[in-house]
Amino acid sequence: MAEQAQTAFTHLVVVGSSAGGIEALSTFVAGLQPRFPAPIVLAQHLEPTRQSHLGDILARRTQLPVRTVAEQEPLEPGVIYVVPSNYHVQITDDHVQLETGNTIGPKPSIDLLLTSAAQVFGDRLIAVILSGTGSDGAAGARVVKKAGGTVIIQDPDTAAYPGMPLSLAPTTVDIVATLDKMGNILSELLAGASVPTRPDERKQIDAFLAEVREHTGLDFNSYKTPTILRRLRRRTVATDSDDLAGYINYVHTHPEEYQQLINAFLIKVTEFFRDPDLFTYLRETILPDLVLQSRKRGNELRIWSAGCATGEEAYSLAIVISEVLGAALEHFNVRLFATDADADAVAFARRGIYPEPALAQLPDELISRYFTREDGNYQVRKRIRAMTVFGQHDLGGRAPFPRIDMVVCRNVLIYFTPELQQRTLRLFAYALRDSGYLVLGKAETPSQLSEFFVAQDKTEKVYRRHGDRILIPPARVVEPLPTGQHIALPQRPRVEMALTGAHQTQRRLRSSADALLLQLPVGVVIVDRRYDIQLINSAARRLLAIHGSAIGDDLIHEAQAVAHARLREAIDQAFRTDAPVTLEPVSVEEMPGGSALYLQFTCQPRHAEGEEGVMTDTVIVSIQDVTRHVQARQMAERQLETTSAALRSLRDTSEHAAGERDSVIARLVDTNRQIIEANQELTTANEELRSANEEFLLSAEEAQAAIEEAETLNEELQATIEELNTTNEDLNARTIELQELAVMTEQERAQLAAILRSIGDAVLVVNGAGDPLLTNPAYAAMFGGPSATFVAGDAQGEPLPPAQTPQARAAQGESFRMEFSISQQGSGRRWFDAQGEPIQGEGIAQGGVLLIREIPAPSQTQGQTPAPAQATPPHQQQNPGRGRK
C-alpha cells in the first residue's frame, strides 16, 4: 500500500519537439523541480537511421531519472520517458508503449502520442509543444483541447524554429511561456485548486462568475465546480497571479483578460464540414434557393458566419457556395462575413493555413480544388479567401450586417445568458432579409423570438425569417472597470506575424494583392518602358480580351482589339511628359446587335526609387468602359443634327412668311386679351392655392411618418458602417502583407545583381525570340557594352546559320555547349566557349541563359586558314589576370 501511494499520480505531461529541440528539451528538463508529481513523456523527431543519445544528454541536465522507452514501460511520477528514434508511441492505461508502423510522416508522431494520451487522461493531460518545424502536434493538440486538457507552447519569439508552436490555432493554446518558466508553470498547474469547502470561498467564486456574466453576457454557473476551478487555475498561472483573489484583481486591472478567460472556459475546437448532414442539406436545398433569389437582386449573395473561431466553418461555407455556383461564381457578388470576438482566432482564420490533419475528413478532390500545399501545411486558395471577409465582432455590443441571406451561428447561443440570447436573435432578425435563413446548433432554438422565425427543418436546426421589420437592439452596456498598469507577461503573438519562410510570405502577399485587384471594377495594367505587363487585374483582362497570365508580355500586342498606335503613343507621352494622358474613347470590338464597345484609357506615370537609388519607371494604364456615355453622346449628336435640319427648314419657311406679319400682329393683340383673362384666372388659382395650403397643414401626420422612415434609414446606415469597418480591417491586414512583399522583392533584386557582378564569365539571358534580357558587367567588358551584340562564326570564320547561333539555341530552351569565333576587323578572330541552359519554372516563357568564356585560338588543323600573324591571342586581349584551368 505504501508503494502504491508513493507511485500514484493523476496527471500526465507530454512534450513534443522537432528541429532545434535538443537545446529546448535540455533547458526544459533543467527547470523541472525534484519530486515532480507526474510522469513526463518526451517525443522528438529524430533521424531514424542513427542511434539517439537524447536520453544521456537530458540525464546530465536534470535531477529526475531519465529512461529511454523499451517496448512497454509503466508510468511513474517524477520520471522522464524518452521515445527512441524510428518508433511511434502510444499511451495505454498507465503504460507507455512503442509501436512500429509504416505510417507516412515523422517518427515518433507527436499527433499519435497526444491523441492516445488524451483518450486515457482526458482533462488530466498537459501537452507541451516546443521548438520545431512543420505542424506535427497541431492535430493532437486539438484533441487534447477537446478532451478538456491543457495545451502549453513555447513562446515562438524565443524558439529556434517556431513552426510547430505557431501551427496550433489560438483557440487551442492555453498558455504561452518561455522555457525557463515552464517548470514552475507545470508545478503550479499540477498543484491544482481544491474544491472550496468554506462558505466564503464558494461565495467568492460565485460572485466572480456573476461578474463575468454581467460583463460578457456568458453564464458559466452550469459548469461543474472542478471544471471551473481547473480552467480558472490555468489563467491564474498564465497571468502569474498568486491565487484566485490575485487573479480577480488582475482581471479588474486588465479588462482584456475577460476574453482570455472566456477562451479558457469555452472549448472552441472546430473542423471543416463539421456535421456533414447539415452541409449536405445546405448544398442541396438551402443554397439553390438562395441563388435563385439572388438572381433577382443582381446576383448578390451575402452570408454571415457568426462565431467563426479559427475559420474552418466559414471556409466550408465558401467551398459549398463555390460548388453550387460552379462556373457562374465569377458572375456573382458573394460576400461571406466571418466574425468572432477572439481577435487572435480571427487573425489565424484570415491566414487560411491549416495543418494536414485538419483536412483529414475532406475528400481528395475538394483538397486539390480548394487548397494548395505549402511546407507541409495547406492554404485555402485565394478565390475562396477573396469571398470571405474576417473581422472581430462582439454580438453583445456591435451592430449587425444588413441585407444578409443566411446567418450561420452554431453552438454560440448555448453559452449566452437569456438576455444576450434575445439580443443576438434580434440582431439576426434585423440582419436577415425577408425569408432569409438562420442556422443554429443542435441544442439551440430561436424560441425567445419565435414571432420572427419559423422552422424550415427542425432536424438540421434551420429557420426562416418572417414577420414585421425589427429595429436594431441597443448595445449591451457594461460598467467600466478601473484600469491599471499592465504586468509584463508572455503573451501569444499576433497570428499575422506567425508566418515562417519567405516562400509562404510571398505566396500570401501575392494572394492578397490578387484578391484586392479582383474587387476593382476598373481595369488596371502596369507596364514598363518596353510596354511589358508588370501587373494586370481580371477587369483589364476581360475588357481587353486577354487570356492567361500575360505578365511579362507586350501590352501593345496582347491588346489585339485596341488601336496599337494610339495606345503606344499615349504610354510614350506619359513617360515623356511625366503627366497623365487620357485617350478619347476607343472602339475596341463589336457587341451583339452591331453596337460597339468603347473604352477610355488613362496613362499615369509612376516612379519608384529602389535600393542604391535605382529608379523604376512604369505607367499605370486604367481602363474604363464608357460605352453608355459614348452612345449617349452619339445620340445627342444625332439629335442635334436633326434639330439643325429642322431649324434650316424653319428659316426657309420664315422667308416666305414676311407677308403674314400683319396677321401675326393681329394675333398678338388677341393674345394680349387672352393674357388679361389668364390673369383673372390666376387670381382664382391663388384662392385655390390657399385651400391647398390648408390641405398641406393637414398632412403633418404624413410628415411625421416620413421622419420615422428617416430614422429607420439611419439605423440601416449604422449597420452598413459596421460592415465597412469590418471590411476595412481585412483590407488593412492585407495591405501590411503587400508592403512586406515589396521589401522582400527589392532585397531579392539586389541579391541577383550582386550575384551577376560576382560572375567572372559573361552572362547573357535571352527570351524566346532571342532578344537580350539581361547581361552582367563581364559581358559588357567582353563585347563592348551591356547591349552589345555579336555575330558567331564557325571555325573558318563564316557566320553560323541563324538557327545554330548560341542566342538562337538558348532562345529555344536547349541545353548545350559549343565553341564559336568572332571576326574583328584588323585584329583577326577571337574564340569563345558558350554553355547554354534553359530558363525553367512554372509560367515562364521559353528562353535561356548563356555563359560565355573567351578561350585561346585552337591549334591549326587541316582545312583551317591560319590567323593573321599580327592578331593578338584571345586570352591576352581581355581578362589578363584570369587564368584557365
Please, could you describe this protein's structure?
It contains 27 helices and 31 strands. Strand 19 and strand 20 form a beta hairpin. The longest helix has 59 residues, at 700-758.
Which key features would you list for this structure?
single chain; 885 residues; alpha/beta; seven-stranded parallel β-sheet; seven-stranded mixed β-sheet; 31 strands; flat; disordered C terminus
Question: What would you say about this model in short?
Answer:
This protein is of the alpha/beta class.
Q: Beta-sheet strand percentage?
A: 15-25%
* Alpha plus pi helix count: 27
| Average pLDDT number | 80
Class derived from helix and strand content: alpha/beta
- Spatially, the strands of the biggest sheet line up as 3-5-2-1-8-9-10
Which stretches are low in confidence, meaning pLDDT under 50 for 5 or more residues running?
1-6, 477-507, 590-594, 861-885
Distance between the termini: 82 Å
Assembly type = single chain
- State the major sheet: 7 strands, parallel
